[in-house]
Amino acid sequence: MSKPTIDLFRADLSWRKLRGIGLPDADLRYANLSDSDLRGANLRGANLRLANLEGADLRDADLRYADLRDADLTGANLTGARLDWAVLE
Question: Which of 4, 44, 87, 89 would you call most buried, defined as having the most Cβ atoms within 10 angstroms of its Cβ?
């Protein structure tokens, strides 16, 4: 039995205050998270493939095991973010 996934495929969450939100294993492919406040967010195992994270604040976010292939991280703040085992290419 597989665990449930939060489906936010192509969601527009730009400029949102999502500090500390829990979205483990979420489907965020093609999502627009530009300029969002995701400080301390739990995005462990999330699928962020082709997501727009331009200018996002990801300080101290948990991105372990996340799929970030082809995501736009231009200007994103990743200070203190956990990227262990994240797929970046």
Answer: 44
